[in-house]
Write a structure and sequence with these properties.
Number of strands: 6
Distance between the termini: 14 Å
Order of helices and strands: EHEEEHHHEHHHE
Number of helices: 7
Strand order of the largest sheet: 1-2
Structural class: mainly alpha
């Protein structure tokens, strides 16, 4: 059951309207606006749903008397993104990097996954996860192999392929270091 609630994915450039099963809106007025926009774009839209009266949120902010959603809207999400970029930019001005470029990093990882500390910590690390019979490093290499034959990956330009491959190399680094796990086996939350 838990696995059904979990997902790992990357969205490249956009999500197609055909990938959406349901649009949730706050009221009938917004529903009509969505319909008008769709009609003006000559797009068939999925089901539009909303609840009248007091609305139940799946993620309720109880620090605000339970009257506000913890799920931010597009303006809040955009502002949080801009704030994060500003903070990252201010910190990166003071950092020296181990690799001069992403190309150098990916070449190092392709040569041997244990060539950098973060991924070396995955080598020999076993997982309690019944879905993973491999070590975490072996699983990482399987993910990379699966990306390389994926039809969406194959359509990407070379730069985007490198970024996806780096994401695959690094997607489980939070499971290390090995020293975190007394018996050398990563526990499943």
């Amino acid at each position: 059951k838990k696995q059904q609630k979990m997902a790992e994915f990357l969205v490249y450039n956009r999500v197609s309207i055909s990938d959406i099963e349901n649009i949730v809106v706050w009221n009938e007025g917004i529903k009509e606006r969505v319909k008008k926009i769709a009609a003006s774009l000559n797009v068939t839209i999925p089901t539009i749903s909303f609840e009248e009266g007091p609305r139940w949120h799946y993620y309720t902010n109880f620090m605000n008397n339970g009257r506000k959603s913890c799920s931010p809207g597009p303006k809040e999400t955009n502002q949080a993104f801009k704030n994060a970029l500003t903070k990252i930019h201010s910190r990166t001005q003071k950092i020296s990097y181990e690799f001069n470029s992403l190309d150098e990093l990916i070449t190092t990882l392709r040569t041997n996954i244990s060539n950098i500390n973060y991924t070396n910590e995955l080598v020999g690390l076993h997982s309690e996860n019944a879905l993973h019979r491999e070590t975490v490093a072996e699983h990482t290499l399987t993910v990379i192999s699966n990306c390389a034959i994926n039809k969406y990956y194959l359509r990407l330009n070379n730069r985007s392929k490198i970024i996806v491959e780096l994401a695959a190399f690094l997607h489980d680094i939070g499971k290390g270091p090995k020293s975190r796990w007394p018996d050398g086996t990563q526990k499943v939350d």
